[in-house]
Amino acid sequence: MKTIEVCLTPELLHQHSIVEKVAVVVDVLRASSTMITAFAHGLERLMPVAYVEGCMALQRLDYLSAGERDGAKVEGFDFGNSPYDVMNGELKGKSLAMTTTNGTLAIEKSKSAKQLLIGAFLNLSALANRVKELDEDTLVLCAGWKGQMNLEDTLFAGALVAQLTNDFKIKGDSALAAQLLYENAQNDLYGVISQTSHAQRLNKLSADEDMRFCLKKDEYNVVPFLESEHLVIQSS
Ligand code: MLT
């Protein structure tokens, strides 16, 4: 049986060997949720970029741009990091360059994985099915916040582990802890996550609606994956 493990922050990634694994990168609030939403609304490809300057360079090459620093939209970008910014059809068939404080950095650090997938509550079941199809040792990488773990990504990791326990062997206590936390919180995810530090940060930016949206389960069935330098989805 293949294994599932959880890395609670990119700072701990060196303790895992990622090269032979499928990596699932998650930043529930809000980068991975916004990416999934953009693809569900027609985005063709997304270049994740760790730094603002890289994103600006791609703007000059006709990419649309999206992203935030400390939650706020970067000046001069076309979109911020809200799922509501990317669901009005403007991205249909387009290329997007995106940079966020933690999410795109976590992607950058996972590029050596055998396959890199993007996860959030919005695509939970589609993602679990894809991970089962791939049937490889799998590592869930939580983007966290500036090197620290965060509860929302850990809860999502636990939700994914809970969906995979019949098919994968749990490896390591962080996967077990994530699953137990999720099982404890699943009936009131909003109540639990609204207490987190990032929820409070988002509230200052009036992004409570974003948070409610990002906690919806199975809203979409797209699973973005990294192909060469771009995130794409399987064409239907
Ligand atoms: C991040 O990458 O740190 C987040 O997506 C921040 C945010 O909520 O905009």
Topology diagram in text:
Blueprint: E1 3-7, E2 22-26, H1 31-40, E3 45-48, H2 52-59, E4 64-69, E5 72-73, E6 95-99, H3 103-109, E7 115-119, H4 124-134, E8 138-142, H5 151-164, E9 169-170, H6 173-185, H7 189-193, H8 197-204, H9 208-214, E10 225-227, E11 230-232
Parallel strand pairs: 1-8, 1-9, 2-7, 2-8, 3-6, 4-6
Antiparallel strand pairs: 4-5, 10-11
The structure holds D-malate.
Description:
This protein has 9 helices and 11 strands. α4 crosses α5 and α5 packs across α6. The radius of gyration is 16 Å and the shape is globular. The relative contact order is 0.24. The structure holds D-malate.
Overall number of structural domains? 1
Task: Average the pLDDT over all residues and give the rounded result.
Answer: 95
CATH architecture: Alpha-Beta Complex
Shape: globular
CATH superfamily name? ComB-like
Brief write-up:
The chain is of the alpha/beta class.
Features:
236 residues, alpha/beta, putative 2-phosphosulfolactate phosphatase, five-stranded parallel beta sheet, four-stranded mixed beta sheet, 9 helices, 11 strands, 35% helix, globular, binds D-malate
